[in-house]
Automatic annotation (TrEMBL):
Keyword Transmembrane helix tagged: no
SUPFAM superfamilies: Acyl-CoA dehydrogenase C-terminal domain-like, Acyl-CoA dehydrogenase NM domain-like
Gene Ontology molecular function: any one: 3-methylbutanoyl-CoA dehydrogenase activity
Protein name: Acyl-CoA dehydrogenase
One GO BP annotation of this record: L-leucine catabolic process
Transmembrane helix in keyword set: no
Protein source organism: Actinokineospora terrae
Keywords: Flavoprotein, Oxidoreductase
Acyl-CoA dehydrogenase C-terminal domain mapped to chain residues: 242-377
Acyl-CoA dehydrogenase/oxidase N-terminal domain mapped to chain residues: 34-111
InterPro entries: Acyl-CoA_DH_C (IPR013107), Acyl-CoA_Oxase/DH_mid-dom_sf (IPR046373), AcylCo_DH-like_C (IPR036250), AcylCoA_DH/ox_N (IPR013786), AcylCoA_DH/ox_N_sf (IPR037069), AcylCoA_DH/oxidase_NM_dom_sf (IPR009100)
Pfam families in UniProt: Acyl-CoA_dh_2, Acyl-CoA_dh_N
Length: 403
């Protein structure tokens, strides 16, 4: 993986087409050694540097500060493109976009301006230590400052990030407070304990938070120690769920394209099938046609839901409970479909590549391992249930950390 022959420093894309082309260049570089990097499982400092050098980390940033000024539908497509080559790096980029954007959904106007200027001008990378399944991090009020103490079992990207989003509950209250801190701040300890079968390069290990002190002025959305919500409950959850959809679909496309190349270049026809070439085998044609059609359908659905979500983002201050709820139902539906089609494709490609395709050097297993690992994030059955409850009872989901 090298950027020697690129001229990214000479120009920044100014159009959606330009940004998608830039993402394709990055994806091609990541694909070169994706198999070996997955096997080695090293902390992806070089890969994150590539995202910075290419400017992809600034995609959602203000143009006046050197950012792309692009929208979420474009961001989702770029996450898909990167995940096609490397699911871990696609996830890291998608999470970065979410945490970069979070200030717009919960921060004060002054905080939004400050965060976006700082992060965009300096091409800073975001991680997050926010996991609702763990005990809440405890926040203590010390007058002008607040202090975070606790532990989170997942902190995706934080080890390779410049900034980390923290979240906790103010002691003695039910107030949740988000704050952005430098990832190298004293008191943050990222543990090297991410050892899962997939998404090996996401640095999703645990973090200990010991006495991390933040000014009240940095408490997102708080003025005089009181929170003023900008949006009905928050759009963070449906936005991150669409990020999940994006890298699931990207991984699925990467699996299908990699399998196609293998079939064309290496697969042999079955000796009793009556064909000389694997690409002429009727069952091979059927499987590729079936999997491709399913992927195309879910990609189109994902684009449609992304456009619906972006319409809500245009005026988030006035989004209603019903508008958010109906959008979340659509997000749940596409999350369910993306999960199922990604698992089907990443497992199904072996039916048409054959026994030799299971060789470790081919790395075809990484696509399934990556999808299988992250799709367990929250049970897909509950996504289908949200849709069913809406259809049968006209009830929208109650906003939670997962809906």
């Amino acid at each position: 993986m090298t950027t020697t022959d690129t001229d990214w420093a000479k120009s920044t894309p100014t159009t959606t087409t330009g940004w998608l082309a830039r993402a394709a260049e990055v994806s091609a570089l990541l694909a070169v050694d994706a198999v070996s990097r997955d096997r080695e499982g090293k902390t992806p400092h070089a890969e994150v540097s590539l995202l910075k050098e290419s400017g992809l980390v600034t995609l959602l940033g203000p143009v006046e500060h050197g950012g792309g000024g692009q929208d979420w539908p474009t961001a989702y497509r770029i996450v898909r493109e990167i995940a096609k080559a490397d699911g871990s790096i696609g996830q890291l980029l998608g999470y970065h976009y979410l945490w970069f954007w979070a200030a717009r959904l919960v921060g004060t106007p002054e905080q939004i301006l400050a965060v976006e200027e700082l992060a965009t001008k300096n091409r800073l990378f975001f991680g997050g230590a926010v996991n609702p399944r763990d005990d809440d991090v405890v926040i203590t009020d010390e007058g002008d400052t607040i202090v975070y103490n606790g532990r989170k079992s997942f902190s995706t990207g934080s080890k390779v990030s410049d900034l980390t989003v923290l979240e906790g509950v103010l002691e003695g209250t039910d107030k949740h407070i988000f704050a952005i801190v430098p990832s190298d701040i004293e008191g943050l300890t990222f543990h090297d304990d991410w050892d899962n079968i997939g998404q090996r390069l996401t640095e999703s290990g645990s973090v200990t938070i010991s006495g991390v002190r933040v000014d009240w002025a940095s408490a997102a959305g708080y003025v005089d120690k009181e929170f003023t919500p900008k949006v009905y409950n928050t759009l963070n959850v449906p936005t991150i769920q669409l990020v999940f959809v994006s890298f699931y679909l990207g991984i699925a496309r990467g699996a299908l394209e990699t399998a196609r190349a293998y079939t064309v270049e290496k697969s042999r026809a079955w000796l009793h099938g009556g064909q000389e070439r694997s690409v002429d085998e009727p069952y091979v044609l059927d499987v590729y046609g079936d999997l491709t059609a399913k992927l195309w359908a879910v990609e189109a659905f994902a684009d449609q839901v992304a456009a619906e979500g972006w319409a809500i983002h245009q005026d988030p201050d006035v989004v209603t409970e019903r508008e958010r709820g109906e959008h979340e139902v659509r997000v749940a539906a596409v999350k369910a479909r993306a999960t199922e089609v990604a698992l089907e494709i990443t497992g199904g490609i072996f039916e048409v590549t054959g026994a030799r395709a299971t060789a470790a050097r081919e790395g075809l297993d990484r696509f399934w391992r990556n999808v299988r690992t992250h799709t367990l994030h929250d049970p897909v059955a509950y996504k289908r249930r949200e849709v069913g409850v809406f259809v049968l009872r006209d009830e929208i989901p109650e906003p939670t950390w997962y809906s």
